[in-house]
């Protein structure tokens, strides 16, 4: 009888009024989550469209992903660590139009919907204020807004992780929730198709928790089976590609580790704190810490998460907050302690989950007037810092985009036109804008020998880009030289053009 009432109460729009699993219903279930969560998602989308989308060209990694499905240029070399999930996601737009603005708008709208749906999964698990504040905390980080409209996988791993943990908890709370297990599988599969290793770290704490959660412990094998099936399904393209192009799965894993600087024991917490000052990639991260204010929230995060767990222990929704905190910390650990460099986007899945216990902490503290006033002041200061950093990062990328367009235009005027090849410094982004293939004779993207590149230059236009930071390849020393606009810190940029490149006019 209790289980029947539980199942009936878990239907859409009906609050849980009784429980048969030992856990009381979540407070706030009678509130209306739709307008609050929709408002958070809409504000997140508008922020992207206004602050990030205008004039923002494709970054280096984005160019690799988009080139796999877009007709603008030949596909760039796809290195071992990458997965094709984000290419699948952008394909409906990238395959139809070369417009970067159209792609940005599409991803901004899609990421806003993704945030709403990931939070919506939790609507019967946590109070609406906790969900709305947690979503807002995550959505106002500069790194979240910046990567929302970008063709990068990390935000989508975050959504998959947030949804997966929510659906797992729903399966644990309600045996009659018919969406719980399929949703759990979909969340893990989404994370896996985007970044397979992240999905493994996501599944581990859920598999450990499965036998401990009631009533899920009556069916832990079903939960673990869903986790395993989702991992297999999501990782399948990456594994198949490993055997088709990388010499097998162990070889691809070894190569991926090499490209990431050989995974091992590192203490990269300070690297991530420095990177929050506006570095999209901090490698190596032996740089001065010039913007410590940008990392205040990062340093306070462990304390706020602990405060949220403590506050939840005194409420009816201890399990959701604790599992969100544990899973978020597990997702963060590999990037904090096994990778020897930092990129703020790596921790987006952890931030999405940790935002919930932080919100729980703030909601609890805000019951006191003095604490509420302090929280309001801190929130305003936090937003000011986040959007100042966001403006600086976006402005820098826009300037680079303009310069890259000028470099590509100069090369086209010098006869580097399809079918053409660009090699050397920042070749991937320049080649894509010029409609050329990008080929490198060495490094992570090594896909041709120097002899092969020299021979290719005899019958098709080839440009080798060199700045004051690098030397001239021996095979290009006799080629025609053309001075190009500087690319950021790459001063003295020039292109060595093969005999097949004939200037126009």
Write a structural description.
- By secondary structure, the protein is mainly α.
- Among the domains are: 106 residues, no CATH class; 97 residues.
- A five-stranded mixed sheet has the order 2-1-3-5-4, with helices on one face.
- α17 packs across α18.
- The protein is globular.
- The N and C termini lie far apart (86 Å).
- The N terminus is likely disordered.
- Helices, by number, come to 19
- What is the radius of gyration computed over CA atoms, rounded to a whole number of angstroms? 25 Å
What's the shape?
globular
Helical percent range? 55-70%
What is the strand arrangement across the widest sheet?
Answer: 2-1-3-5-4
> What's the rounded overall pLDDT mean?
91
Give the total of beta strands: 5
Quaternary structure state of the chains depicted: single chain
Distance, first to last CA:
86 Å
Order of helices and strands: HHHHHHHHHHHHHHHHHEHEHEEE
Short characterization:
With about 500 residues, this protein is mostly helical.
